[in-house]
Every structure is written in structure tokens, then in C-alpha cells.
Amino acid sequence: MNEDEIINRIPIRLSNRLSLQIHQFPLLSRPLQAPPSAEASGKRITARIKPQSHVLEIHVPADTRLEVYNSERSHEFGKGRLDDDREKNQERKGKGREEEEPRLAEIRLRSEEIPQRNVQMLGIVHDNELHLHPINATHQFRPTLTYLDILSRKSKRRGGDDSDSDSDDGPPPDPDEPAPAIVPKKKEKKAAAAEAKEVQVSARRTDDKAGNLSQLSNARKEMLAIIRAEQDESWQNLEYCGMKTEEAGHSLDQFFSYNKEVLYCSADVTTFLG
Amino acid sequence: MSDTPSGSGPKPKAISSLAKRPSEVTRQGTQKLKFVPTLPTRRNKDVEPVPDTIPASNERGRGRGRGRGRGEEIGRGRGASRPPVEMVASGPFALGPAMAGNSNSRRFAQSATSIPTPSRGDTSYLGAGLSQTAAPKIKREEHKSQKGEQDEEAYSDPDESVEIIDMENVRQMDWMAPDSIRKARVKGLKKDPDATAPEVNAVGTVDVDEDDADEKDLETMFDDFGKIHYDPDGDSQHLYFFQFPSTFPTFSAKQSDHTQANVHRTPASKKVTFAQDVKPEIEPQPSSSRDPSVTVKEELDGLIGHLEVYRSGARKIRLANGIVFDVSPASQPSFLEQAVHLDMNKNKLAILGEIFRHYLISPDVDTLLNAMDALDSTSQTVLVGEENLIRMDVT
Predict the structure, then answer these.
(1) How far apart are CA B330 and CA B217, in angstroms?
(2) Where are the compositionally biased (Acidic residues) regions (chain A) (predicted)?
């Protein structure tokens, strides 16, 4: 170590002007871009956020060329998604365009915030200096397939004695607390005819385990409360600026540290000793 | 959707594969003789015999003939030889004897099952509408995929509607094309780029990264920070992710006594100056996501230290007050990561870029130990007669 000579020294600068986040896409190993066919038809990536619940969604237009896209199923799924949106009150008030047959033309990536354990910083080397900036939050994005839930619910109602594995009654009820699984189901049933059957099943089960409703643990209640609060909050649209846009360039300019002065450090190496 | 045509009416909820098919057993319990037709009654031309057995076995496992109504017949006939007449050639001998000896024919044969064969009557050639543009890649993969450009295999000329595609290059075919699994490289390959990869490792093994990741990491880390010295124009604008230990030192812009900034060099050759504005000391790493009202983020902007690049390839970050960190490459994620600026005031989400490489910052142990010793020695009062004794740590 003593003979090791320094061959280069790069000054490090720190700034924290921006609210920086890391977005991870665990199931994606390609850059996040709209496919060229979609860009040609004017579709762009859009985003929206629920600020209080810290949930983001990124909508990426899908590649709708016939070679890689199944139109018939897209109509089916599109209808499911529309119903799903209506249920959750997150339907996009149409921009005047009423599509007769909604298609599943975009992939929705939904975020989950990952708790940060250590201090994380982003660094960019600029002008032979390393600029650091702390990262506020990390989000992981995965595609949402909630439209499939609606469709499976419909097919479950329709084919009551069809023993498809898709139409199982869901996971076996938790022996301690079966009630919570039932309550949201009851809330969301809307169909007329088949509902009678479903309600009977639900009612029977709650009758059997009526006593356990009060045994909902606090943790469970909290979780349910968080989920409901999140569902009640409405989306705010965000303007998505891709990497090469001017807006992103402005943000990048703000990233760098411009002050040449040295910051005072109040800690010592011994802080790491615990 | 066709349900399995079993003898009984409503389908039992039991797992059908475990239950005996009622048609196989007579009332007396003996096995019925099964008539196996030598010719199938109906056969779709565009399905290969190879994946043919797969749906049949799936079907047995699930007991349902959904979507593959004829599968059951063929399932029964699985033990028998393949139906002779309408068989579609596939496998190593698909294109005749010319391809049999070629070492790459096996590779091609895998793709034979997915590419339409000449016997397909349908005119819509599967590959017709592909964009023939390469699928996009995340930037950091450029390094690794540079190898392997070595050989362009010479194949025999394609037949009428067959297009020969190298599985390695499937990514080039279309914007949505999948990634092909990289061949595991043999150590010798690095020095001899013309040698073809051995057949054994051709398929499936992805231990490419594990073998030489460590070697590569030091090199690439060197490239990241070492090259800068020689290339001031090439501001590559790569985004690096640094993970610091949780006790990151707090910085503040603190006021001196209204005098000019004082510059004095410490032995570690750092500059320590004091900025002129007064600001309270606040943690510069707010996890402000959960309670924005509570944390007051102080605006920080300034120099905090230096990144030193050593000849041995080690990197250290030296901050004020004798804090030294080791920089080491962290495990690199294989997925996409973006740095994003979320501006709630303007409702804007701006993508700053993709993260290029991860680094792990840890305190330098030698410095830590020295500091610990120094701390211990200064905080003791040495009594007369105790100079040569070592103090016990009773804390």
C-alpha cells in the first residue's frame, strides 16, 4: 500500500438540489422506450403518480404490429382493463375520443417503493470532477395485470361448474382469518344474475366464521387501511420527459454542483466505529 | 374450449390425472384393449411432431383437452410410432444430408422447430413483417456482447421459404426480438478469438459472468475513473451508483468568522475552507419520502473530497477529517435502472439516464484502525509508571 502511487485525483462535489429517485425495472433488460411503430403513430410514454401513497405508474405503448401482437385478445383485455379502471375510479376521462373497442395498447408498470438501507448516491463525472447527489427513493416497476382479475372473475361466474383451474376459489382460506378475504369480494360484485350464487357462498362463509371478524389483527387492519387509502387517492398526471429531451437536460444541469467551495464535515472517521 | 370427453357428465373436482379414466377399465376391472389407429384421423400440418408430445403430456397431467381436442388421441398413441405420412421433417436431418455434418446444424435445428417449415401451406410467412432492426440494449451490455462477432457461419443456401437464422443473431431480427442466451466462454477464447466455442457449452449455461466478472470488474472500474485523466473531452456522462455506509458524514456549509476563506493543506493534501453562509447542520440524506413536512433539506453544494486512483487499481475516496473510503464494484443488476428527477411542483418526471455501474463504498479499515488507536491513546491519561502498559478496554 505504501508503494502504491496515486495516478489520478478527481475532486468530488456534492449537491442535493433535486429530488432524485432510482427507478428499477426488474423484468426489463432493455431500455424503456416506446416501440418505433408506436412512436410513429404519436404514442408516447406517460406517467402518473399518487403522491401520498408513493405509487407511480408508467404507461408504455405496446408494439401493435401484427407479428408481435394479438388483436383479438387485445380487445378482450382492453375491455377488462376498462372495467378495471372504472371500478377503481381511475378511468382516464377520455380526451374526447370514444373508442368503440378498447384495445390493450399500453403496458402499465406500477411502482413499489423499496426502503433504503444505506446512503445511496448518484455520481456523474463531469469536467473531470465527480459530482455526487443523494438519492431520495427507489422504486421498482412491474407490469400490472389487474385486467386479468376482472376477466377471470367474469369467466368464473359464467362457468360455474367448469372445473378450470383458473376458476378455483382462490387460495385456500387462511384458517385463522378467513373473513378479510371475503369482505373485499363482497364489495366489488356487480353482476346481476350470477351474483346470487356468489353472495350465497360468501354469506355462508361469513356466517360460519362470524366470530372471527373481530379477531382481525391490528397489522391486518393497518394493511387494509393503507390499501384502501391508496385506492381512494386519485392519480395525478405527470409529464414524462425522456432521456434526450430538453426538460431532462435542464434537470441534469441542476444535478451538478456549481459551488466551488468546500463543505464542512462535522463527522469523523470514528463515526463508523459505531 | 373443449372439455375432455370423459364418460361421466359433470366433471369431478378431483385431479383427473390421478383418477383412472373410466374408459380404460371394464366393469370386471380388467384392462380394456385399446385400439390405436395407425393413421391419425386429423392432423394439423403446421404443428411439429416434436412439440406434439408436449401438449399430450401436459394434457395428461391436467386432464383437460382445452384447445387441443385431438390431443387425447395422439396422447394414447404416444407409445406407438409416429404417424408416418404427414410427418414434417425436423431435427438434425431437417435439411438433408448437407447439413448433417455441420457443427452448427444442431444449433440451427433448435430453431427449426420455431421457424415455419416448407410444408406449411399458409402463405403468410412468419418472418415477413419483422422490422429487421435490432432490439435495443441497455448500454452497459455493450462490453460483453462485443465478443462473439468472430464467425459468420456459412450455411447452405436457403430453400424456398426457409430463412436461416443464427440463434445468436436473433436479436437483430426485430425490435421485439428476444435475447439469445450467451454462450459460455472458455478461458482460452479470450486470447484466441477465432476459435469457435465448444459445442458442450453452446446451450444454456449462463456462467459467463461469474467466471470473469471479478477480473473484468477491476478493469472496468479502472476504465471508469482512470481514463478520465487522458480523455477530458469525452464526458461520457455515465451515471454511477454509489452505496455508502449508513453513517454518511453530514456536511454543511458553515460560517467562518466573516473572513476570507482559509486555505491550508493537511498532510492528506486536502483543502479545507469554510464557506461564508450560515446554515444549520442537517443530514444531507433525507429519506424524505415518508414525511416531507418534517425533514428540512438543506441546500448543499460544494467540494467534499477527492477520489484517488492508485496505480494498483484501487480507488479511495478521501473526505475531510481523515475519512477514507474504499471503492469497490458492487454486484451489477442485469435489469434496467434509471435515475429520475421527480419535480412535483411542475408535475414533471425527467429521466436523467440509465445507471451504468454500481459501486460499493466502505470505510477503509487501515485508516479506521489507526484512528481508533489514536483516539484511544489521546483519551487516556498516562499515570506515572504506566507508560509501558497497555490499557484494557473495559467498556
Answers:
(1) 9
(2) 162-177
Decide if A60 contacts A34 (C-beta within 8 A).
yes
CA distance B367 to B346: 45
Cβ–Cβ of B334/A8 closer than 8 Å? no
Q: Chain B closest CA to A107's CA: distance in Å? A: 14
* A·B CB contacts under 8 A: 343
HSE value, Cβ hemisphere, 13 Å, CA-based, for B53 = 8
CB contacts of A51 in chain B (<8 Å) are 344
C-alpha distance from residue A270 to each of A274, B121, B281, B363 (Å): 7, 77, 19, 10
Alpha carbons B335 and B130: distance in angstroms, whole number: 25
The one-letter amino acid at B102 = N
Q: Measuring CA to CA, how many Å separate B10 from each of A160, B20, B25? A: 11, 16, 20
pLDDT tens column, B108-155 = 333 333 333 333 333 345 555 566 666 666 655 444 444 444 455 566
Dist. CA B348–CA B389, nearest whole Å: 65
Global confidence as pTM: 0.58
Mean local confidence (pLDDT), B321-327: 84
Shortest distance between the Cα of A108 and any Cα of chain B, in A, equals 16
- DSSP conformation class of B302: E
Domain ranges of chain A: 11-159+235-259
Name the minimum distance, in Å, from the CA of A158 to any CA of chain B: 13
Say yes or no: A40 contacts chain B, CB-CB below 8 A. no
CB contact under 8 A, A236 and B336: no
Tens-place pLDDT, residues A31-77: 888 888 888 888 888 888 988 888 999 988 888 888 888 888 888 88
**Chain A residues with CB inside 8 Å of B324's CB?**
269
